[in-house]
Amino acid sequence: MKSTNWVEKYRPQTLEKVVGHPTAIETLREWALSWEDKIPQYRAIILYGRAGCGKTTSAYALANEMGWEITELNASDQRTAAKIEKVAGSGSRMETLSGTKRLIILDEADNIHGTADRGGEKAIIGLIKKTNHPMILIANELFEMSYGLRSSCKLIQFRSISYGTI
How far apart are CA 6 and CA 8, in angstroms? Predict the structure, then answer.
Protein backbone atom coordinates (compact mmCIF):
# COMPACT_ATOMS: atom_id res chain seq x y z
CA MET A 1 0.00 0.00 0.00
CA LYS A 2 1.39 3.40 -0.97
CA SER A 3 1.66 5.98 1.80
CA THR A 4 0.81 9.58 0.87
CA ASN A 5 1.89 12.61 2.83
CA TRP A 6 -1.24 14.22 4.33
CA VAL A 7 -0.23 17.70 3.16
CA GLU A 8 0.28 16.47 -0.41
CA LYS A 9 -2.91 14.42 -0.38
CA TYR A 10 -5.07 17.42 0.59
CA ARG A 11 -3.11 20.17 -1.20
CA PRO A 12 -5.53 22.47 -3.10
CA GLN A 13 -5.46 21.74 -6.83
CA THR A 14 -6.93 25.08 -7.94
CA LEU A 15 -6.52 28.67 -6.81
CA GLU A 16 -10.18 28.75 -5.81
CA LYS A 17 -9.41 26.17 -3.11
CA VAL A 18 -6.52 28.21 -1.62
CA VAL A 19 -7.87 30.10 1.39
CA GLY A 20 -6.86 33.26 3.18
CA HIS A 21 -5.26 35.23 0.35
CA PRO A 22 -7.97 36.64 -1.93
CA THR A 23 -5.98 39.68 -3.11
CA ALA A 24 -2.74 37.74 -3.64
CA ILE A 25 -4.58 34.95 -5.50
CA GLU A 26 -6.40 37.40 -7.77
CA THR A 27 -3.13 39.19 -8.59
CA LEU A 28 -1.47 35.83 -9.29
CA ARG A 29 -4.32 34.76 -11.57
CA GLU A 30 -4.27 38.08 -13.47
CA TRP A 31 -0.51 37.73 -14.00
CA ALA A 32 -0.98 34.18 -15.32
CA LEU A 33 -3.74 35.23 -17.68
CA SER A 34 -1.51 38.00 -19.05
CA TRP A 35 0.69 35.21 -20.51
CA GLU A 36 -2.10 34.05 -22.83
CA ASP A 37 -1.61 36.65 -25.56
CA LYS A 38 1.98 37.79 -25.17
CA ILE A 39 4.95 37.96 -22.86
CA PRO A 40 3.88 40.40 -20.10
CA GLN A 41 5.83 43.27 -18.58
CA TYR A 42 6.82 41.09 -15.61
CA ARG A 43 8.03 37.69 -16.75
CA ALA A 44 8.55 36.62 -13.15
CA ILE A 45 6.87 37.16 -9.83
CA ILE A 46 8.05 36.71 -6.28
CA LEU A 47 5.60 35.15 -3.84
CA TYR A 48 6.82 36.08 -0.38
CA GLY A 49 5.66 35.61 3.18
CA ARG A 50 6.07 33.41 6.23
CA ALA A 51 6.73 29.70 5.86
CA GLY A 52 3.59 27.59 5.60
CA CYS A 53 1.19 30.28 4.40
CA GLY A 54 0.48 28.78 0.95
CA LYS A 55 3.03 30.23 -1.48
CA THR A 56 4.22 26.95 -2.99
CA THR A 57 0.72 25.48 -2.93
CA SER A 58 -0.55 28.52 -4.84
CA ALA A 59 2.18 28.14 -7.48
CA TYR A 60 1.27 24.48 -8.04
CA ALA A 61 -2.47 25.23 -8.04
CA LEU A 62 -1.88 27.95 -10.64
CA ALA A 63 0.07 25.58 -12.90
CA ASN A 64 -2.64 22.95 -12.56
CA GLU A 65 -5.41 25.44 -13.26
CA MET A 66 -3.64 26.89 -16.32
CA GLY A 67 -2.58 23.48 -17.67
CA TRP A 68 1.10 24.43 -17.46
CA GLU A 69 4.00 22.02 -17.04
CA ILE A 70 6.31 22.63 -14.06
CA THR A 71 10.09 22.85 -13.78
CA GLU A 72 11.29 23.40 -10.21
CA LEU A 73 14.57 24.23 -8.52
CA ASN A 74 14.61 24.07 -4.73
CA ALA A 75 17.06 25.31 -2.10
CA SER A 76 18.16 21.72 -1.58
CA ASP A 77 19.49 21.81 -5.15
CA GLN A 78 22.84 23.40 -5.82
CA ARG A 79 21.99 26.63 -7.66
CA THR A 80 25.12 27.80 -9.37
CA ALA A 81 24.88 29.71 -12.62
CA ALA A 82 25.71 26.51 -14.53
CA LYS A 83 23.06 24.44 -12.71
CA ILE A 84 20.39 27.11 -13.19
CA GLU A 85 21.17 27.32 -16.91
CA LYS A 86 21.13 23.53 -17.25
CA VAL A 87 17.84 22.94 -15.43
CA ALA A 88 15.83 26.09 -16.09
CA GLY A 89 17.71 28.01 -18.79
CA SER A 90 16.98 25.95 -21.87
CA GLY A 91 13.51 25.11 -20.56
CA SER A 92 12.73 28.79 -20.20
CA ARG A 93 13.18 29.35 -23.91
CA MET A 94 12.06 26.06 -25.49
CA GLU A 95 8.47 25.16 -26.22
CA THR A 96 6.88 22.22 -24.43
CA LEU A 97 5.90 19.10 -26.38
CA SER A 98 2.24 19.80 -25.62
CA GLY A 99 2.48 23.43 -26.74
CA THR A 100 1.52 24.75 -23.30
CA LYS A 101 3.50 27.09 -21.10
CA ARG A 102 6.02 25.81 -18.59
CA LEU A 103 5.97 27.33 -15.10
CA ILE A 104 9.48 27.65 -13.72
CA ILE A 105 9.42 27.62 -9.91
CA LEU A 106 12.46 28.62 -7.86
CA ASP A 107 11.54 27.76 -4.29
CA GLU A 108 13.44 29.29 -1.37
CA ALA A 109 14.83 31.95 -3.68
CA ASP A 110 15.86 34.04 -0.68
CA ASN A 111 18.52 31.41 0.13
CA ILE A 112 20.64 31.94 -2.98
CA HIS A 113 23.99 33.03 -1.63
CA GLY A 114 27.34 31.72 -0.53
CA THR A 115 29.87 29.68 -2.43
CA ALA A 116 27.43 26.84 -3.23
CA ASP A 117 25.29 29.22 -5.31
CA ARG A 118 28.12 31.15 -6.98
CA GLY A 119 26.66 33.29 -9.76
CA GLY A 120 23.17 31.91 -9.17
CA GLU A 121 21.40 35.21 -8.53
CA LYS A 122 22.94 36.84 -11.60
CA ALA A 123 21.93 33.80 -13.67
CA ILE A 124 18.34 34.06 -12.41
CA ILE A 125 18.13 37.74 -13.36
CA GLY A 126 19.45 36.86 -16.83
CA LEU A 127 16.94 34.03 -17.08
CA ILE A 128 14.06 36.36 -16.18
CA LYS A 129 15.07 38.75 -18.97
CA LYS A 130 15.12 35.99 -21.61
CA THR A 131 12.38 33.57 -20.57
CA ASN A 132 9.45 32.76 -22.83
CA HIS A 133 7.68 31.06 -19.93
CA PRO A 134 6.31 32.33 -16.60
CA MET A 135 8.57 32.16 -13.55
CA ILE A 136 7.66 32.16 -9.87
CA LEU A 137 10.27 32.77 -7.21
CA ILE A 138 9.20 31.81 -3.69
CA ALA A 139 10.76 33.46 -0.64
CA ASN A 140 10.14 33.74 3.08
CA GLU A 141 12.28 36.87 3.46
CA LEU A 142 11.91 39.29 0.56
CA PHE A 143 14.77 41.53 1.66
CA GLU A 144 17.22 38.62 1.75
CA MET A 145 17.11 38.93 -2.05
CA SER A 146 19.08 41.61 -3.88
CA TYR A 147 17.41 44.77 -5.13
CA GLY A 148 18.29 43.75 -8.70
CA LEU A 149 16.40 40.49 -8.38
CA ARG A 150 13.42 42.05 -6.55
CA SER A 151 13.10 44.87 -9.07
CA SER A 152 12.97 42.47 -12.04
CA CYS A 153 9.87 40.75 -10.64
CA LYS A 154 6.31 41.59 -9.68
CA LEU A 155 5.93 41.19 -5.90
CA ILE A 156 2.99 39.39 -4.29
CA GLN A 157 2.84 39.16 -0.51
CA PHE A 158 1.23 36.24 1.32
CA ARG A 159 0.28 37.02 4.90
CA SER A 160 -0.22 34.57 7.75
CA ILE A 161 -3.56 32.79 7.73
CA SER A 162 -5.79 33.03 10.80
CA TYR A 163 -6.92 29.84 12.54
CA GLY A 164 -10.52 30.77 11.82
CA THR A 165 -9.85 30.81 8.07
CA ILE A 166 -8.19 27.41 8.20
Answer: 5
